[in-house]
Design brief:
CATH architecture: 2-Layer Sandwich
Order of helices and strands: EHHEEEEHE
Number of helices: 3
CATH class: Alpha Beta
Radius of gyration: 16 Å
CATH topology: Alpha-Beta Plaits
Shape: flat
Number of strands: 6
Structural class: alpha+beta
CATH superfamily: Dimeric alpha+beta barrel
Largest sheet: 4 strands, antiparallel
Helix content: 25-40%
Number of domains: 1
């Protein structure tokens, strides 16, 4: 079963961190990737740019409308994700406990169309 680990950081976090903090964070993610490989968990993942760089396409009476803002305002930024393939929710939660955490990690099952 596939789960997405959605990573969140405090709002504007990456604009305020030092180079040393950035290096530490990247090292934590490299260690987490090694942990997943050692467990034999298939995964992929990416970091994303901060929400203020997001562009959203929303429905409107005149058809799809492009809006230069994130879909929802949050006090945290969606920072990236890991997509993991594991046995079930218990294993996904165990894996998430090892994931580097900023403001939190949301664990969400991925719907796979039949």
């Amino acid at each position: 079963m596939k789960y997405m680990l959605l990573l969140f950081d405090p709002e504007n976090y990456w604009e305020s961190v030092s180079e040393e903090e950035m290096t530490t964070a990247l090292t934590e993610h490299q260690e987490f990737a090694r942990y997943l490989r050692e467990r034999g968990v298939e995964f992929s993942g990416q970091a994303v740019h901060p929400g203020q760089e997001a562009v959203t396409v929303r429905p409107s009476a005149n058809g799809p409308q492009v809006v230069k803002e994130p879909f929802v305002e949050l006090k945290t930024d969606f920072a990236g994700y890991y997509l993991i393939d594991c046995a079930g929710l218990d294993e996904a939660l165990e894996i998430a406990r090892h994931c580097p955490m900023g403001a939190g990690v949301e664990v969400r099952p991925v719907w796979e169309a039949p």
